[in-house]
Structures are given as structure tokens and as C-alpha cells.
Design goal:
There is one protein chain. By secondary structure, the protein is an alpha/beta fold. The chain is built from 16 helices and 15 strands. The chain has three domains: 145 residues, NadA-like (Rossmann fold, 3-Layer(aba) Sandwich), CATH 3.40.50.10800; 121 residues, Rossmann fold (3-Layer(aba) Sandwich); 80 residues, 3-Layer(aba) Sandwich (Rossmann fold), CATH 3.40.50. Strands 7-6-8-10-9 form a five-stranded parallel β-sheet, with helices on both faces. Strands 3-2-4-5 form a four-stranded parallel β-sheet, sandwiched between helices. The structure holds iron/sulfur cluster. The site of iron/sulfur cluster has 13 residues, from loops.
Length: 382
Amino acid sequence: MSTHASTTADSPAYELAPYKSLSNETLHARIQAVREQMGPELLILGHHYQQDEVIALSDLRGDSYQLSQLAAANTECRAIVFCGVHFMAETADILANRAEALAARDGRRVDVILPDLAAGCSMADMAEIDQVEAAWEELGEVIDTAQVTPVTYINSAASLKAFCGRHGGIVCTSSNAAAVLKWAFARRERVLFFPDQHLGRNTSLAMGIPIEQMPVWDPLADELGGNDEAALTDSKVILWKGHCSVHQMFTAAHVEQFRERHPGIKILVHPECPREVNDLADVSGSTGKIIETVKASPPGTQWAIGTELHLVNRLKAEHPEQEIHFLSPVVCMCATMYRIDLAHLCWSLENLAVGRPVNLIQVDPEIAQWSLVTLERMLEVK
Ligand code: SF4
């Protein structure tokens, strides 16, 4: 485990159970009271995929890396409550409690809290550090790993970011993946990309890398990730067999149905979607790009958007001048992020306010240090 969660208490923390029976109205009022009591010492971060009632009580709204950076730059806060998923809180801890930030605050750490520790990311969980280390060793039997750059998507555990740090690798986001791959190919011959095969594949295809040179490494396969030796020696990008359970749900048939029923509609998707969806889309881009694309479009534009449901519904509400549809007929929402509800938020805040923080996320110092190396490499990529 790269992180641990703890309750620091002279007396026991408030129990969660009673909060679950409170109405949203009561929870909202009590959360608001803690916000007023703590003032600028408290920073609540709301990821774009969060439910509306959580977003309404967040100080900042954004995507994972953007939120962590904004939080790390905040000099007043003493506690960050991250309404997102586990890897996001880890990144916030790494950035907000890095050596220079600690020095600027006379050594005082910022508490980083994840209101529900069960809020993980199914994609991040598809690449465990032991599996990645085993894959690296096995790859070393058939190719020269000194010529492989490990690239991890930011949606990954801190231990994977640290692995990349130790092996000359780098982190990417969905907005800079192409620039990061270019950076990697300027240094070494090949890339091992994890945990999201779709982002790796869609980005590499757009850069002109042939699909034949992108074998998929299945960590559950018996040998060589399910590949023959030639597939690996001929590879440019080795894709980890991982995916986002939300974006994986969109299909080419959804795109075709919308095009048939709504002539002229534009398809806007996230690059975590499968290749066949990404290839058919008019625009593919990060959460930030999706939001900006809608914002910049003229009234009357028709969109079918393939990304997390809460974000699409919010875009719909914020842009009534456009016609916005959700690309799938089935609900695709981030179930783990949805675990952060007002009950968990109120419970964690009231414990924090009385000096008994629960669900603290603290990345192991060595892992944090190597993770920072990869994050800083990413920041140098233009
Ligand atoms: S939307 Fe997908 S990648 Fe994002 S946190 Fe949820 S499961 Fe993970």
C-alpha cells in the first residue's frame, strides 16, 4: 500500500452511521456551517464527475490534476477535502506536501481527506504495482527495457507513478498524452503505457503509430502478457489491458444511432472511449476540452457527448441554448466517485472541525518523492 488512512483522536471520531439517515437539506446546512467556521483553512475540491449537491458545496471544480495543482498553490488552507477518487487525493497530498511547499509553511502539513475510502478508480485498480513490476521483468527477457519508457496515465496509484519515476518514465493526462509520448520517443525506442489501453491506443494512432505495433499486455495471461515474442520485439507502444468502466460502455452503434436520428449532430467523446467510438467522433478530448468545446459552440449546436453522466447533465443544464444528449442509452456514471455523498462529506468535515480528521490520505514519503519526479517531468513537457 502506498498510502494509509488514519484517525488521529484523543477521543473517538464521530460515527458515520447516523449521518446516513439525515436529509440532504440538513447535511447541506451542517456542511455549510463547517465551511463558515473553518473559512480559508478548508478547501473542498469537487471533480467534474461529482453529483450536483457535492459540486454546490465545493470551493473548486475541475479535473483531477487541475484540482490538485490549484490546491497545492493555495497557501492558506490547512485541509483539503477531495471529493473525487483515491488516486486524486494521493496526487493532492504529493503536490501539497512536497518539500518546498512544506518549507513555505514552516513544515506544517496539509491534511488531505477522501470522504469515503471506498471511492477508488476501477481503471487505476487494473494495474497493480506488483503486476507492473512483474511485467517489466518479463519484458526484460525479450526486449531491452533500457529502451522502454514507462508512461502512466494520471489515473493510477502513486506507486505506479513512483515506478515511472525510478525507471525514467513519466505521467500523462488526457490532454497532454500526445506531447508526453513525443517526449518519450525522443528518448527511447518504445513505450509501456498503463493503465488505460484506450487512451494509449487512441493517442498513438493519432500520432501515426500503426496498430500492429501496439500489442496489448494482459497482466492475467500466463506468459508475456499473452503476446508472442515477435509482437513485443516489433512493438512501439505496449498497451496495458486496462480501461475505464464508464467510458468503455460507449459503442460505435450509439454513434450511428444518433447520426441516423439527428442529422447534423456532432459527437464529442473522451479519449478513454474505445477506438471505434473515438474514430467516429467529430471531437475527442479531455474533460477540459469537452467543456471548452461546448462553451465555444454557437446556440443550436447539437451534441451527443460520450463521457461521465453527471458532467453531461451539468453541461446540459448550463447550456440550454444548445441541444445536448448523452451518447449512451444506458447510465454510464462513475459509481465509485458517486460514493462521495453529502453524508460522507458532512461526517468527514465535522470530524475535521473538532480536530479528529478521518480518512487521511498520506502517501509513503519515498513513493511521494518518486511520484513527484514523474509529475515534474510531465510539467516540463510542452
Ligand atoms: S470515470 Fe473511469 S477513470 Fe475516471 S475515476 Fe471513474 S472509473 Fe476511474
